[in-house]
Design brief:
Mean pLDDT: 88
CATH architecture: Clam
Radius of gyration: 20 Å
Shape: globular
Strand order of the largest sheet: 7-8-9-10-11-1-2-3-4-5-6-12
Number of helices: 3
Number of domains: 1
Low-confidence stretches: 1-23
């Protein structure tokens, strides 16, 4: 009887560990490319818990700008590697409100070895349509990150109109002019790596001066 009880306890513990690991937050790096007209920019995310670092990388491979975020505190720091300066971004403004229609088409497509579902978000008032291919996983950071950044760009605002996006991440998205079909912008994920990220990535480097307005 005692042996059976021990087996039951071990079985429950193993089940808890399996469930817990399946809900683990993504930790690692994500690289993606953004195209807007003739502008072509690469970005790299470093993710660990509530800490996010975004690097904007130019065509020469140099880092033009860095953003460091604490999602729990909703704080954003902007860094200039060229000037060796940093500043805390002002508190976010009220979120933009847009009217949009969302459709989950049922179609799927594979990006980076991950099967993604197609969602289409349309705003007739803005004359824009964005087609997203969204991965379901452990990307719990992404939606809170967009809300913290509070960018007034369509790719971000339209994504936030899609319900039930906790833990999901857009592997690819294309923005069109609704009336003409012209492509406006495109985001493409190039790589995702689950790995440990050094805590120093989320700190302002020594030698940087604070920018005072």
């Amino acid at each position: 009887m005692k042996l059976n009880l021990q087996k039951s306890i071990l079985s429950i513990a193993a089940s808890v560990l399996i469930v817990s690991s399946s809900f683990a937050q993504f930790t690692g790096t994500i690289e993606f490319n953004k195209k807007v007209g003739s502008i072509d920019v690469n970005y790299k995310y470093y993710v660990s818990g509530d800490n996010i670092r975004i690097e904007e990388i130019n065509e020469d491979g140099h880092i033009d700008g860095i953003q460091i975020m604490d999602l729990k505190e909703e704080k954003v720091y902007a860094l200039s590697p060229e000037r060796k300066m940093y500043m805390e971004a002002p508190k976010k403004r009220a979120a933009a409100t847009i009217s949009a229609e969302v459709e989950e088409t049922g179609k799927t497509k594979t990006f980076n070895g991950v099967t993604c579902k197609e969602y289409i978000v349309i705003s007739k008032a803005k004359d824009r349509k964005i087609v997203y291919y969204i991965a379901d996983g452990d990307y719990d950071f992404f939606e809170p990150m967009l809300k913290t950044l509070n960018r007034k760009e369509n790719q971000a605002m339209f994504f936030l109109k899609i319900p039930n996006m906790k833990g999901k991440f857009p592997m690819h998205s294309t923005e069109y002019v609704l009336s003409s079909g012209k492509v406006i912008s495109e985001l493409s994920t190039k790589s995702l790596k689950k790995e440990t990220v050094d805590a120093s990535k989320f700190e302002v480097p020594s030698g940087y001066s604070k920018f005072e307005r």
